[in-house]
Amino acid sequence: MSPIVIAVFSLALLLILIFSGVHLNISLMITSFATVLLFTGRINVAMNVLSQSAWGSVRQYMFGVIPLFVLMGMLANLSGASSDLYDAAALMLKKVRGGVGIATVIANAIFAAITGVTVASAAIFTKIALPQMNRLKYEKKFSLGTIAGSAILGMLIPPSLLMIVYGSQADVSIGKLFVAAIVPGLIMTFAFILVIAVVGKVKPEYIPVVEELSEFEKENYWKIVLKPWPIIMLILVTLGGIWGGFFTPTEAGGIGAFGAFVLVLFKKGFNREEIWETLLSAGATSGSVLILLISASTYSKTLSMCGIINSISFFVEGLTIPPLGIILIFMFILMVLGCILDSTSILLLTTPLMCPIVQDLGYDMVWFGIIMIIAIETGMVTPPFGMNVFTVKSSLQGIEGYEGTTVNDIFKGSTWYLIAIIAVDLLLVLVPVLVTYLPNNM
After folding, report:
1. At residue 221, what are phi and psi to the nearest 5 degrees?
2. Taking Cα atoms as reference points, which of 369, 341, 350, 361 lies closest to residue 428?
3. Helices (H) and strands (E) in the chain, counts
4. Mean pLDDT, to the nearest integer, of 216-220?
5. Sign of CA dihedral 173, 174, 177, 178
6. Which stretches of 128-278 are assigned E, i.e. beta strand?
7. Is 170 within 8 Å of 369 (Cβ atoms)?
8. pLDDT in tens, 412-442
9. What keywords does the record list, in alphabetical order (predicted)?
10. Is the model's pLDDT at 286 over the cut of 80?
């Protein structure tokens, strides 16, 4: 049976299982087994391929970075870092029109360098920033969109779980991915701030006038502004150590998790119950990601063994389309998939198929990983399954003034930021040096 026929069967079976409600990792394992069985006609070979691929995936040293950075983020949040960051940014920008919105973006950007999880940022800053925006009479849809949109920085600014997933699947240095994302992350942060500034000019009724500092804020200005310095130092040490070559991403995760634990001890003391819950939550999050990575690695090796990847590569490269056109088509496909699947699933499904083609076209794989992740992240704020939007909606309970808010309201408010995300991704496609300069000079 030809690889193309097997490829069609494999893709059809996978989609049928996913849309039937079967969990992604089970769907990938079943599809991998069925594909090898169809290719070889031998059950024992199919079973051996599954077992060897799974065992080989589990033993990869780089996977240790996932639980460590997840734990770092959860411990940092337990220490109150998110509130400290927001309070400092809001105070410094209080005299700026749209200052609370800009503070939300900046706090999200810094907090993203701790968590690496988009929905965590969306949930946390809904509780922290939204009451302040409501008090200052920001337009409700825009304030909701600001939180949902800026939360995508969690997957772009390192450390990011999506970068770890991509690096493991595409065999790309996770350290280089982390460093490569610094400039795009700053550009995206600036783009979101620019959105707020533009909206303030075009729709002045959306953003209220500035307010003056209270006597308490004047007296305690530097105390509030400097309060988040420990978490910022922790971020600089972990990412700076990777960039400078002092330690690997996995070692950086260990240092970051230990540093976050020390912050918890200094700020809150040793609360056995809270720390135990944090450890369990970090283990559950890491375990779900690792299981997905194992099944995706098995699927990738299955496609390669059956010759499916080579066949698809020859087909795409034979099209009369310039290489840049193929990249843009891939971006469009990823954005469409973002409307119906979660980010990790998209990355696990598309990386084995797209990356060999992109590599054959001569493109930098670190660069492609960054633009791929940004394209996928548009799905976090697009209907019908925008995870950030639904996270914000579920976090609105108990916040006064937002009782009648619908999911559509949040989607509408996020549109401004969706445009900015797409614009930044296109900029990085057209100017690759913005991504490649730092990792090439590590």
Report:
1. -55, -55
2. 369
3. 24, 0
4. 76
5. negative
6. none
7. yes
8. 888 999 999 999 999 999 999 999 998 888 6
9. Cell inner membrane, Cell membrane, Membrane, Transmembrane, Transmembrane helix
10. no
Distance, CA of 202 to CA of 435 (rounded, Å): 32
Model's pTM, two decimal places?
0.79
Separation CA 168–CA 294 (nearest Å): 10
Average pLDDT, the chain: 81
d(Cα 327, Cα 331) in Å, to the nearest integer? Answer: 6
Q: From CA 175, how far away is CA 180, in angstroms rounded?
A: 9
Q: Is pLDDT of 312 > 70?
A: no
CA nearest neighbour of 416 among 229, 200, 128: 200
Please check whether residue 116 is in contact with residue 80, taking contact to mean a CB–CB distance below 8 angstroms: no
Domain boundaries, the chain: 3-440
Sequence-separated contacts (24+) of 272-281 with Cβ below 8 Å: 274/78, 275/78, 278/71, 278/74, 278/75, 278/78, 279/71, 281/74
**What is the Cα–Cα distance from 59 to 360, expressed in whole angstroms?**
28
Q: How far is CA 336 from CA 107, 339, 341, 376, 421, in A?
A: 29, 5, 9, 9, 14
Distance from C-alpha of 233 to C-alpha of 226, rounded to nearest angstrom: 11
How far is residue 334's CA from residue 441's CA, in Å, rounded to a whole number?
29
Q: Which two tokens stand for residue 88?
A: 């400092």
Phi, psi angles (nearest 5°) of residue 26: -70, -40
Tell me the backbone φ, ψ of residue 311, rounded to 5 degrees: -65, -45
CA separation for the pair 177, 366 (Å, rounded): 6
**278-305 b/e (C-beta count within 10 Å ≥ 16 → b):** beeebeebbeebbbbbbbbbbbbbbbeb
The 3-state DSSP class for residue 243 equals helix
The set of residues, in sequence order, having a beta carbon less than 8 Å from that of 59 and lying 6+ positions away, is none
383 prior amide bond cis, ω within 30: no
Contacts of 48 (CB under 8 A, 6+ apart): none
- List, in sequence order, the alpha helices (H) in 203-247: 215-219, 221-225, 229-244
Residue 266 CB contacts under 8 Å (≥ 6 apart), including other chains? 230
Six token digits for residue 211: 């307010």
